[in-house]
Amino acid sequence: MSLYESARRHALWMLGALAVAILFVAVVERFFGHSSLAFGIAIIGLVAANRQMLSFNCPRCGKNVFFRGIFVVPWPNRVCGRCMLDLTDTSEK
Ligand SMILES: [Zn+2]
Question: Among residues 6, 31, 69, 73, which is most buried (max CB within 10 A)?
Answer without folding.
Answer: 6
